[in-house]
## 1
Amino acid sequence: MINLVSVSKSYRQGNENYKALHEISLNINAGEFVAIMGPSGSGKSTLINIIGFLDNNFDGQYNFNGTVVNELNRRDHARLRNQSVGFVFQNFKLIRNQSVGENVGLPLLYAGLKRRDIIARVNDVLEQVGLPDSYDKLPKNLSGGQQQRVAIARAIVTRPNFLVADEPTGALDSATSREILALFEELNRNGTTIIMVTHDENVARQTNRLIRILDGRLQSDVEVQHAGS
Ligand SMILES: Nc1ncnc2c1ncn2[C@@H]1O[C@H](COP(=O)(O)OP(=O)(O)OP(=O)(O)O)[C@@H](O)[C@H]1O
Ligand SMILES: [Mg+2]
């Protein structure tokens, strides 16, 4: 599904060019649950922003299901993003003065669905993430873990090809982190491809594949062995 060929990325920092990614080549298949780890500043967010179609300004080639992503114009790149990927962030990024249901339904509103269909789909995914009957609540009245569930509902409501999560448990206590991770595992079991950045070895151990990045380079890429399986 995802195929990166020698992808490099430089940022302008003042008058200098800073190379944040060095010739990354990588394949990710549909159905995988991938963890990306590495020290702060190693290039993890830079990498997943390219993979998740937020950034199309890089060297090398990105093939996505037969489309050469780096050759798309701005509009087609944005369309690919809207249709193919769901994002989950550390700080949830919910809209404060909108209800849970409105937050989750926003991508469907952008996609042009009818109000009645939106409400039905939103209630379905809210139930899927363990938050039935919360359409009319406000995010601020929910716990951190519940807010992250809302963000996950928003990420899956368009039925994207894959999810990108940048430290989704970074702002949560360890018990809540385990619950959120269990939700990701369930989504993955049901066929959702997930690429997740984490600083937590315990979180990474629950995935199927661990990619380590160091100084913008692929350091290792191994299958995760699960005890007893
Ligand atoms: N917009 C930007 N402009 C200039 N430099 C940037 C920009 N974004 C990132 N960088 C630099 O690129 C490098 C990689 O940054 P990136 O955010 O990908 O790291 P990261 O691995 O996600 O770190 P963290 O774990 O702290 O989130 C860093 O040195 C950072 O300073
Ligand atoms: Mg980051």
## 2
Amino acid sequence: MNIEAARKSGRMAVTIVFAGVLSLYILVMTTTTVHAQNCMHDEYEWVSVIKPTCSRFGKDIRLCQDCEEILETEIIPKLDHKCKWERTKEPTCTLPGVKSYICKNCSEVIETEEIPAKGHRFARAKTQSATCRSPKITERTCSVCGFSTSEQSGGRIEHRYKWKVTRAATCADCGIKTGTCTMCNVTKTESIPPTGKHKYGDWSVKSVKVKGKKLKVVQERSCKTCGRNTREASGTTASFSGKHDNGKYYYKHTKKTGRIVILCSECRQSVSGKISGGTIKFTRPKKNNSKVSSKGWRRVYIMCACFLDNMSYGLT
Ligand SMILES: [Zn+2]
Ligand SMILES: [Zn+2]
Ligand SMILES: [Zn+2]
Ligand SMILES: [Zn+2]
Ligand SMILES: [Zn+2]
Ligand SMILES: [Zn+2]
């Protein structure tokens, strides 16, 4: 324990000696400062305390080398900026950019200028040809920003119909055809005109009228398919000679050709008629000994003008 105590006291002694030297030093320094009041400031020098930059004023002081009093202060002007142009914002297709005149030391922006927008850069156009639904479309896309424009030109084109017969036309009736557009599938119906190709059946005798010594014959036949369209052929015979009883006429008729033979059963004169181009052409009266009782002969029932007149009378 004694050894430890002795060491401690030794250390303390060293400390006390050091403190004494320090207080002596302070005493000397104080004595020197007091001396300033009588300094003539003969020895001085300029000292730069703040170096000027482009953003800050500098400061120099004149300092007395003896008493260290600041005798004069001078403000040093700022230095010039060291600038260069820099692109601070790149232009896009549609927006202008900016270039700035910037000091590389203090980063101050001295001046700005606009960089014009670059405009779109369109790649090759894509075209879609006109259809029955839309006109020709030309589409362009900017390869930089993806902006696209589409432009229409010309008009739509006509539908392209592919026709199919829905109902065939007959000799007398219209048919129907349906068209489907090969592009848009729109449909349209149209009528097909009748063929007009009637298939005529056999001739029949429509009327036989007596006009003095002549007979007017009218035949007709109609279409077997439509049953409607009828055709007529008429003709007047040459005069029968001599005196006649108008109630004694007979006729023989061939349905297929329309050939007709008219015979007066009393005086044995006959004419035969043949149809050609809508009229019946008759031969001149000639002798005919046919027996009207044989097959094929029919009686001509006369409806003469006077008879019709009588009928009219009867009716009133
Ligand atoms: Zn001084
Ligand atoms: Zn600067
Ligand atoms: Zn663009
Ligand atoms: Zn179409
Ligand atoms: Zn017909
Ligand atoms: Zn006769």
